[in-house]
Amino acid sequence: MLFLHVFRTLQGKRITVHVKNGIVIEGTLQSIDHFYNIKLINTETKDAGNLNMVSTLSTAYIRGTSVLYIELPKDEIDLNILHDATRRQEETEK
């Protein structure tokens, strides 16, 4: 649950979610649960193609199983701390 904690510290920050069907949604992270279901507010859609209804959403609920990957703001993440925490978690699971 290390990464869930990282995502929860990013609530209120702008993230970009790439969905498996090719849609890219950027918005402010409002909430995320342990299934990685994401709620974004103040969204902007990129690469929505001809899906006009998606491009006009102000709030988006994205199911965790449909997420391809998530772009996080570089200035909000301390990679050294994240690397160390990942190593410690791996060692405790052995």
Q: What proportion of the residues form beta strands (DSSP E)?
A: 35-45%
The major pleated sheet works out as:
5 strands, antiparallel
Strand order of the largest sheet: 4-3-2-1-5
**Distance between the ends:** 16 Å
The CATH topology is given as SH3 type barrels
Q: Would you identify the CATH architecture?
A: Roll
Number of helices: 3
Q: Could you tell me the mean pLDDT?
A: 87
Specify Rg, calculated over alpha carbons. Answer: 15 Å
Total E-strand runs: 5
Q: Mind telling me the CATH class? A: Mainly Beta
> Low-confidence runs (pLDDT<50, min 5 residues)?
none
- Overall helicity: 25-40%
Category from helices, strands and their pairing: alpha+beta
Global geometry: elongated
What count of structural domains? 1
Order of helices and strands: HEEEHEEH
Description:
The chain contains 3 helices and 5 strands. It has a 5-stranded antiparallel sheet. The model has no long low-confidence stretch (mean pLDDT about 85). It has one domain: SH3 type barrels (Roll). It is of the alpha+beta class. Helices cover about 30% and strands about 35% of the residues.
Essential attributes:
94 residues; alpha+beta; SH3 type barrels; 29% helix; Sm protein
SSE inventory with pairings:
Elements: H1 2-9, E1 14-19, E2 24-32, E3 38-46, H2 52-55, E4 59-62, E5 67-71, H3 79-93
Antiparallel strand pairs: 1-2, 1-5, 2-3, 3-4
Question: What's the quick description here?
Answer:
This protein has 94 residues and is of the alpha+beta class. It is built from three helices and five strands, in the order αβββαββα. Strands 4-3-2-1-5 form a five-stranded antiparallel β-sheet.
